[in-house]
Amino acid sequence: xxxxxxxxxxxxxxxxxxxxxxxxxxxxxxxxxxxxxxxxxxxxxxxxxxxxxxxxxxxxxxxxxxxxxxxxxxxxxxxxxxxxxxxxxxxxxxxxxxxxxxxxxxxxxxxxxxxxxxxxxxxxxxxxxxxxxxxxxxxxxxxxxxxxxxxxxxxxxxxxxxxxxxxxxxxxxxxxxxxxxxxxxxxxxxxxxxxxxxxxxxxxxxxxxxxxxxxxxxxxxxxxxxxxxxxxxxxxxxxxxxxxxxxxxxxxxxxxxxxxxxxxxxxxxxxxxxxxxxxxxxxxxxxxxxxxxxxxxxxxxxxxxxxxxxxxxxxxxxxxxxxxxxxxxxxxxxxxxxxxxxxxxxxxxxxxxxxxxxxxxx
Length: 362
Hints:
11 strands
């Protein structure tokens, strides 16, 4: 089937095109909603938006990934949650209204960021549409402010209780460095990835969703643990003996956050020193913590990680993203990255025990 162009859909050309990348998180999982540290990087897959302003407040949307015959329509300023993919755009027009009036527009979206793979397809969509609307309607927002607006769209309109990492990464990260982010202050800096290393990303084939479910439960458990410790957020916990005194499973949840924050800081130092072996070890420790203390991994992901860490040319590997499915990230020797990624996915698939895994990035 021929994919319709903007002109095919709306009878005219777009005024602007904008895009935003997906992201892979190197380390620092489930720390962002506790005010902690994260270390994501952009991936070379983007969501692209073509957009044209129109009279009135009517919005017409079409997505190549969720293609129906006709565009979805709604009115800016009268957004209502519908439980479909367009809620991320409705949420953005609703949230962006705090920065200035949003009028009507036509938009065509197309994305190469896998949905449900833990690579921030929703944040990439939010930032891409936000960049286009920021330009067309002259909104006075810098890239950090745009990320804050996008996060509000996802938490308060869509209803997914995410932290700020995804939106900050999709707004500010690039593919050649990691974005070291303090999610409390939003201070950030780019940490170069050594030239002799590459990141590999392999999708487990098990999709996940952030809206509701176990992700929300984990966030609530972290808040309860902080309250019992008498601190604002688990970022402020610095005594593992006190953490150990919490009732189960809050003790394990808090231990993951405290030790994961320490692993991010150690990974940043190791990257700066070019110590790839230490970064790889931190990846392995992070995955074990996510599997055992935070309990967000699944057997298919554990099997991929186990195969990866025993593959020649891989320093370390771990689950990336919120968990309950999604992808793994591995740190690889650059000259072995593609072969190692293929070896991991092919061996995993030959076993036939889990959904089909595929290499996304090498």
